[in-house]
Amino acid sequence: xxxxxxxxxxxxxxxxxxxxALNSGALxxxxxxxxxxFFRGLQLIFYFRNPKGxxxxxxxxxxxTSKMKWGKFLRLxxxxxxxxxxxxxxxxxNNVSIGAFSRIIVSTSxxxxxxxxxxxxxxxxxxxxYLGGSGGLEIGDECIVGQYLSCHPENHNYEDLDIxxxxxxxxxxxxxxxxxxxxxxxxxxxxxVEIGDGCxxxxxxxxxxxxxxxxxxxGVPAKLLKTRTNDYQTDDFSNLLRRKSV
Length: 246
Fold this sequence. Notes:
- The protein is an alpha/beta fold.
- The chain has a single domain (21-245), classed as 3 Solenoid (UDP N-Acetylglucosamine Acyltransferase, domain 1), CATH 2.160.10.
- 15% of the residues lie in helices and 27% in strands.
- It has a nine-stranded mixed sheet. A seven-stranded parallel sheet has the order 2-5-8-11-14-19-22, with no helix packed on it. It has a six-stranded parallel sheet with strand order 3-6-9-12-17-20, with no helix packed on it.
- The longest helix has 18 residues, at 24-41.
- The protein is globular.
C-alpha cells in the first residue's frame, strides 16, 4: 500500500518519499483525508471548471471563480477563502499549497477593485495567511512560507487633517516576492516592497522596503543582516550567532 500511495503523491511532488517509520494507521488516515480532499475538489465541475486534481479541505469557499486560474494539484486547507474580486484575477501555479484558515483576497471594495494575485509553481504557504492583492501581489516559484504571512499591497491616504482617513482613499504600488525564498512565520510585508530571488525573511519581521537577491532579512522594521553569498554581515547577525552558541 505504501508503494501505491507514494506513486500517487509523486504525481504532485516527484521528490516525495514516505518515511520508513510511518505506521499503517497514519498511512490509512492520510489516504482517507486525501480521498475526501480530492472528492471535494470535484465541486469545481459545477462552476464549469476543470479541477486539475485540486485538493480541498473542509469549508473552502470561492468568490468570483471566473477570474481564477490554477495549475495542477492546487491544495487548499480547511476554511480557506479565495476572493477574485479583481481586474486581473487570481492565478495559482502548479503544486501550490495554502494552509488552513488562510485568506486570499484581491479586494473587498466594489467601488475600487484591486489588481491581482499571482502565485508561482511549487509554492507552499502555512496556515492563517492573509494575502491581499489590491495593488498587486506576486510570489515566485519554489517559495516556502511559514504560518501567518501577511501581505498588504495598499496604503491609506491621511494627509488632510480635516477629512476622516477612511474617506481619503488609498494608494497602491504592489508587492513582488522573488523565486526560491524562505519566509518565516508571522512575517508582514507592506506595500511597495520587492524581495529578490533566494531571500530569507526571519520570523516576525516587518518588511517595509525592498531587498536584493540572496538577502537575509530580519527585524522590525526589517533590515539586511547578511547575504547568502557572505559578502555583507552586520554586527546584529554576529551577535545573534554568538548568543545561539552560548
